[in-house]
Amino acid sequence: MIVLQFQVSELAEFLKYGISGLSAIAFILSFFLLNRESSRPRPRPEMLRSIRMFMALTLVLGLVAGIATILNPNSNPIPEKKTATPRKASLVSKIISPRKVWEVEVFFDASASPLAEQVAEELRNYKDYTVKMTSLTASRKRELKIKKSQIRHELIEKEVATQLQSRLDKILPQDVSLALKQITSSSPDYLSVFVCD
Fold first, then answer.
1. Which of 2, 40, 81, 124 is deepest in the core (most CB within 10 A)?
2. For 166-197, what is each residue's pLDDT tens digit?
C-alpha cells in the first residue's frame, strides 16, 4: 500500500505554477482521500460519492489549466525573480565580491598633522587603499560629532575597518588608539579615519 505524506509547505510550492499547480494539488488530495477511504474495512458510500465529485471537479480544473496553456503558450507560469534595487544590488555585490581597493580619507586636526602623515604613509604601503588627506576644521568636527580618533565604517565594512585598525595600531603611539565607529550613511568602498589631538 502506498502511503502518501506531504508537508503543507511542499504542496504550497505547486501554487507558484498558477492554475496548473492548483490542479496538481487537487489531484494529489483526491488520490489521498480515495486511498484513505479504501483502506477502511467498509468504505462509506456517501464518502465515495463526495470523493467522486471532488475528482470530477479536479478533472475540470485540469482541463481548464491545459486549455489555458494551449491557448496562451507564451505565458510563463513560473514567476520571474524580482531584480534588486540598485542600492541592494550594490550591497550584494560588495558582500559577494568585495572590492580590493578601498578609498581611505584621513581627517586630521592641525596639531595632529604629523601623526596623520604617518598614518597616511603607512596606508600607502598597502595596495588595498588609496589615501586622501583632509584637514579637519573645528566646525566640521562639531558637525560630525568627533570627540576622539576613530575609524568610521558601514555595517558591511566592519571586517575591512577592523583590518585597517590592526594595521594602524602597529604604528600608533601607546596613548593613541583608533576606535571603530559604525555609521548609517552610505558611501561605498570608502572609510574615514579621524586623527585628533
1. 124
2. 999 888 888 888 999 998 888 888 999 999 87
- Whose cell is 502506498? That residue is 2
> What pLDDT is stored for residue 130 in this prediction?
92
Biggest alpha carbon distance in the chain? 96
pLDDT in tens, 107-139: 998 888 999 999 999 999 988 899 999 998 888
Q: How far is Cα of residue 52 from the mean position of the Cα atoms in its chain?
A: 47
Which residue shows C-alpha cell 558591511?
A: 156
Dig out the grid coordinates for 17 from the structure: 505554477
pTM: 0.49
Q: Are 132 and 105 spatial neighbours (Cβ–Cβ below 8 Å)?
A: yes
The answer to whether 181 touches 151, Cβ cutoff 8 Å, is: yes
Reply yes or no on whether the pLDDT at 4 is more than 50.
no
Residue ranges of the alpha helices (H) in the chain?
8-13, 19-38, 45-71, 86-96, 113-124, 138-144, 158-169
DSSP 47-101: HHHHHHHHHHHHHHHHHHHHHHHHH-TT---SPPPPPPPHHHHHHHHHHHS--S-
